[in-house]
Amino acid sequence: MADAGLTGSATDDRAQPPRRRLSIPDWFYRHGGRLWRKTSVTPDDAWLKPVETASRKAPRDLAPVLQAFAFCGGIALYFSLPREPNAWVLMALAIAALVFALWAHWRGRLNPVVLVLALVLAGAAAGAIRTVSIAAPVLKEPVSAEISGHVSGITGAGASRQVTVDVERWSRRGEPPARVRLVLRQAQKLAIGDAIKVKARLVPPSGPVRPGGYDFAFRAYYDRIGATGFVFGAPEVIGLPPPGYRLKALRQIEAVRASLVEGIRAALGEGDRAALAAALLVGDRSLISDEAVEDLRESGLAHVLSISGLHMALFAGGVYAAALALLAAFPLLALRLPIHKIAACVALVTATAYLLLSGGSVPTQRSYLMIALVFLGLLTGRRGLSLRSLSLVAVALLIVAPEDLYDPGFQMSFAAVLCLVAVYDDWARRPATKMNAARRSSLGLTHRILSSVMLWAGGLAMTSLVAGVATGVIGAYHFDRVSPYGLLGNLLAMPAVSFIVMPAGVLAFLLLPFGLADLPLALMAWGIDLMLASASFTASLSDTDGVTGQMPALAAVMLTASVFMLLLANGRWRAIAAVPLGIGLVSLMLFRPPDIMVADRGALVAVRDASGNLRVTASKVGFAAETWLRGDGVAPMEFEARRLLKRHMACDPSGCVVEAYPLLAEKGAAAAPFRVALSRSLEALEEDCRHADIAVSSFTLPHSCAKALAIGGPERVQKGALALWLEVVGGKAVITHLQWARPIRTRPWHGAQ
């Protein structure tokens, strides 16, 4: 019997039952946590590996955030490469590095450097695979063509109405662009999925209007838009094979959105009240007036127009609370069913519908995923809103669309939420938090109400301040402006938004399909009026419209990094934030705006006059001129005064000559001007190459200009806009530095094959 017991025979009562086969879900249940957690962490690698603790005094777990930053660094590295790498080689390297990192982690020998390298390679591979997967033809030069295809998108209203067409065929040789975006000059009712034929003037997607500016060609490439332009006449509806399932689904969604917008306008009439209600409920911002948009932007309330965390939280939270209250009203259900989980499911389904009907922008996707994690946390008994969940959402979105890393909405949305989660996590860790809650519970009803109001007001002020700091640098970099009175604007308007506009909007959204939304829409309109009045008052306090001037990329990255370090780091490590802060401030102080700007086409240039003011040659200040002037710190109200008039230029039928001066010329120093010639003919171009300091033309440069400083049309189209810096050398203004807006076409979004 002893032998039988040692061998575990069938006659032994203590024999173990046969092991069942371990399935993949069982493996992830038992071992999946090891991807993020370790039971023992040495001091050397604790900064990168998360630790499992529930103590309030324990340092914050920054491992998921740092890992997400490493992945973002890999994406940034890929997009900054001078030439397109081999996507499959990058993917193979990334897979090998990740497998090695996981193997080392399971064995307890993972080096932080190995993990960072693996995540950087994974980010670079994600960008390369994305670029290959959506590759489509990009137009090389302007053409006129007749194109036929299905409408896949409609934006704007009135004269700025644009349609996106998935091209089926065109009248020229060669492969057509997969998708084009066209401006409609004649009003015509179109819907997504309609098959149309148009005659259009097509041009390649434009690059940045200044070096370091927003690259429209980059965004267009990842939207598979190979050309932009305008339509001659009216589109003709034709017969083509039915569109695919994607366009059919979009057509149905757009039809629902249009019906909701019509219901809103029927209840509220025309004007900004109805337009803002439509923007908040279905994401249609095409009807908002420019004055309202400008007031909201200057008062720091532009985030209200973007359906993001605030809207999704109030919307889904309101539905959850309503569903929970409704279920709790029936004791039989409340006692037998997990009503909070049922309410979470209802809220999640409603949030999904809100996502689809709101247009699904990047901030909305981020907000939806965060809300989904919160409700999934309710369903599984876990915390949903944390730095870890935010990092997972960011990585998930970037795996699908790595180009979103350069989207201003993505950057501002995640920066704001990241800093807010960190600040409120610090607040929750305070030892006095529980004590204060217990003290409030012992107060009388009136005191509890006042205490709650003051706590809410303080939370609103802190939220506005933290979000403003987190997004201020990013906004200044992308838009050359900030909201100087944004804190005041949010304190005045957000109570109306939180307690009137969005609760009434949630009810209106649910009742609109039944035609019963007039009362909640009227209440919502009243709250919108209060918000617009607050925005108008706050905007009137600023004389400069918050214009800051152009910010260099290094300064923006360093200042943003300093904010992250200050709010995320543990204890004394926050002092490290002084390093990027110092670098950013020094870079900002050393930056000097250009003295001459040349557009990528046409005769538009900007030059600095003898008094140091930047002036443009445009007869009407358009987008490029506005961007240049705003980058020089000029407020919009001064744009018209910065136009170069005829008396400021020496012009004849063959061209013009304008004079430019450096910004940092010493006072009292007489400097000969730098002459810029704008040539309108080949004969004038040859003469300007001999006499002018620089010649700008739309023609191909002749051989006589080979040794002169001249810029021809093909070079401008290829390299984009040009910025030049001048200095006084020997009493003469000379060029010391020049920078093109984009390099030679070595990447696919700039036309490289």
UniProtKB/TrEMBL annotation:
It is found in: Cell membrane. Residues 280-569 form the ComEC/Rec2-related protein domain. It is a multi-pass membrane protein. It comes from the Bacteria. Signal peptide: none annotated. Its main location: membrane. It holds the Pfam family DUF4131. Residues 86-234 form the DUF4131 domain. Keywords: Cell membrane, Membrane, Transmembrane, Transmembrane helix. The chain crosses the membrane at residues 62-81, 87-106, 113-139, 312-335, 342-359, 365-380, 449-479, 491-512, 519-539, 551-568, 575-591. InterPro entries: ComEC_N, Competence_DNA_uptake, DUF4131. NCBIfam families: ComEC_N-term (TIGR00360). This is ComEC/Rec2 family competence protein. It comes from Pannonibacter anstelovis.
